[in-house]
Write a structure and sequence with these properties.
Blueprint (H helix, E strand, L loop, with lengths): L1 E4 L5 E5 L6 H27 L5 E3 L5 E4 L1 H7 L3 H4 L4 H6 L8
Antiparallel strand pairs: 1-2, 3-4
């Protein structure tokens, strides 16, 4: 907003810019819906895999495992998610590969 003053420094007018955000808000809603659907689809594929899947971050912290991984290794997600792979190997929860 930009105020316009008279000769006595009184505000006589305020110029402002108004933008209709309806279309932008609708696009944002659609994007969030689409992202949610993709996340659900990815989770369904992840959980339905017969292969054991393990996801960690770049520092080896366990982010997620699927049901097949739990079954194959005999561990639960509660036991390993949030824990570092090096600690899990050191404790014998996982064996070192290679």
């Amino acid at each position: 907003s930009t105020p316009i003053f008279d000769d006595q420094s009184n505000i006589v007018l305020v110029v402002t810019n108004v933008r209709d955000m309806t279309e932008l808000n609708e696009l944002e809603r659609r994007l969030e819906h689409s992202e949610g659907r993709r996340q659900r689809e990815l989770a369904a594929v992840f959980e339905s895999s017969f292969d054991g899947l393990y996801i960690s971050d770049g520092e080896g912290n366990t982010l997620r495992i699927n049901k097949a991984f739990e079954r194959i290794l005999g561990v639960s997600a509660d036991e390993v998610v949030g824990r570092n792979m090096a600690d899990l190997v050191r404790e014998g929860v996982f064996s070192r590969s290679g």
